[in-house]
């Protein structure tokens, strides 16, 4: 499942570049996996490609989007419209990937009423009613960490069943609610570890020479 969004990104990229079909090798290279794994993954979807032609890109996009449930265009609420929230709300690329941010919330009255990308920032007190009227199923939290659990509780109470958390903290949610966490600092720390190992290897190579 985790590889499907990578295939989808690569397929959209190929379609935008004007391709109609793609070989398993080219798609695997674009998605950063090996081609045997890709062929096996796609065979589970019932896609085998045509010998000498490859995979029909638009058909495969439709299949992967169907499996990921993206054909339904998910309604998303974003809570916390500060530095990060502004950037996310202003990004126009989510709609073509199956998501639509339909509502923005903040607790700061000075932010309420501001327009970003055609949406008014609403007060957090309006969350429950908006989740119902806009049929929101995914909530994005971009508040400071101390507010994140409070916001998660409000989202869950309102009926949201998936949360993407950008705040650096662990959220407690009831069973049936999915939480994914994004933390750029953790990714940087992993890269830092690799850098550290590379310089240590270089230093020991130089010492041996
Ligand atoms: N995951 C990452 O890679 C990553 C990267 C950058 C920032 N962050 C995190 O994202 C969060 C936001 O960062 P920022 O720089 O945009 O902060 P910010 O202070 O600029 O914005 C936070 C916003 O949340 C609002 N807020 C506070 N409490 C709220 C509540 N109870 N309900 C609704 N809104 C509320 C504030 O009014 C403010 O507008 C922080 O937790 C930060 O650590 C994560």
TrEMBL record:
Keywords: Cytoplasm, DNA-binding, NAD, Repressor, Transcription, Transcription regulation. It is found in: Cytoplasm. Signal peptide: none annotated. The keyword Lipid biosynthesis does not apply. It comes from the Bacteria. NAD(+) binds at residues 80-85. One of its GO terms (biological process) is negative regulation of DNA-templated transcription. This is Redox-sensing transcriptional repressor Rex. The gene is rex.
